[in-house]
Amino acid sequence: MKNNLLSKLENNTVKLSKGHKKISAYILQNYDKAAFMTAATLGKNVGVSESTVVRFACELGFKGYPELQKELQQMIKSKLTAVQRMEVSENLIGDNDVIRSVLTKDIELIRETAEMTSKDDFKNAVNAINNAKKIYILGVRSSAALASFLSFYLNLVFDGVVLVDTSSASELFEQMFRIGEGDVCIAISFPRYSRQTVNALNFIHDRNATVISITDTEDSPMAPYSDYLLAARSNMASVVDSLVAPLSLINALIVSVTLSKKDEVYNNFNKLENIWDKYQVYEKEEELTDE
Fold first, then answer.
1. Cβ-contact 40, 66 below 8 angstroms
2. Residue 9: CA atoms inside 13 Å, Cβ hemisphere, count?
3. Which residues contact 267 (CB under 8 A, 6 or more apart)?
4. Is 180 left (phi over 0), alpha (psi -120 to 50) or beta?
5. Among 54, 74, 161, 291, which is most exposed with the fewest C-beta within 10 angstroms?
6. Which residues contact 191 (CB under 8 A, 6 or more apart)?
7. Which carries the bigger pLDDT value, residue 70 or residue 90?
8. Cβ atoms within 10 A of the Cβ of 183, count?
């Protein structure tokens, strides 16, 4: 997403027709709301027809209104405050079935992620993880849950996995100051992007470690520091970040890593099953039945 859309609207005002000028002015003043309106809704709010809105998008060089809408959404995702997110969510869902609305959107995000993720970057990321001296996993705020999930499973496969504790910016660098060539950092961040994560990637990149970024687009501030970028669609549902598609991508990454090291994984899990059984880590089905 390029951040010049609003400038483009301002510069094109003189060339636009009367109806298109009204749409342009409305978007410039209400872009946070317009980004989530259908063409029909936007037209109704402006006082023009839906077809006029579609022609306006084409006039700006887009293939259609959905493409203009996506660019607006990408532009504002990292800018919306929590209060604005609540307002947008209320407008989007309204009195509709919340469960159906949210789950349907998550399904769409997973479908888009399957289409947009670079297969080459994914394959190269798996190879880098398998050959790493040490694997650092970094995710802050809502992305911390994804980082923890990934760390849990990679720890069952590899010896040198470090889940970076991000509670303190200074401690973050202290945990990673030994990182260097041959090591891999898997960094996770989605809008609103964490400055802490971006600063850490700048440091890691300078240390010649391999950076695998899991983020939403190639325009993410993480991209310049990334050797391999795995893109997953994210969106917001009220103040909640929808991380269903990123989690699904991480699942695929874990599965691919384990399948490529299946002999080691098989041996590890045989040993773990014996340990879990000996120390009664999990409930046994017969014990539950007896009760």
1. no
2. 20
3. none
4. beta
5. 291
6. 77, 78, 216, 234, 241
7. 70
8. 22
Rounded distance between C-alpha atoms, residue 173 and residue 179, angstroms: 10
Half-sphere exposure of 276 (CA within 13 A, CB side): 11
The structure tokens 């850490």 sit at 200
Asked whether the predicted pLDDT for residue 14 surpasses 50, the reply is yes
In the beta sheet, which residues pair with residue 1? Answer: none
Side chain identity at residue 98, one-letter code: V
More confident residue, 287 or 234: 234
Strand order in the sheet with 210-215: 161-163, 135-139, 184-188, 210-215, 228-231
Distances in Å between the alpha carbon of 171 and those of 94, 137, 164, 175?
A: 43, 14, 9, 6
Identity at 136, one-letter amino acid code:
Y
DSSP letters for 68-135: HHHHHHHHHTTT--HHHHHHHHHHHHTTS-HHHHHHHHHHHHHHHHHHHS-HHHHHHHHHHHHT-S-E
CA torsion sign for 33, 85, 104, 146 is: positive
Q: Which two tokens stand for residue 122?
A: 């994914």
By three-state DSSP, how is residue 29 classified? helix
90: Cα within 13 Å, side-chain hemisphere: 6
pLDDT for position 4: 65
**Beta partners for residue 235, in sequence order:** 242
* Digit-coded pLDDT (tens) for 154-184: 998 999 999 998 777 778 888 999 999 999 9
Interstrand relation of 240-242 and 235-237 (parallel, antiparallel or unpaired): antiparallel
Q: Is 162 helix (H, G, I), strand (E, B) or coil?
A: strand
At 138 the three-state DSSP class reads strand
Alpha-carbon distance of 259 to 253, in angstroms, equals 10
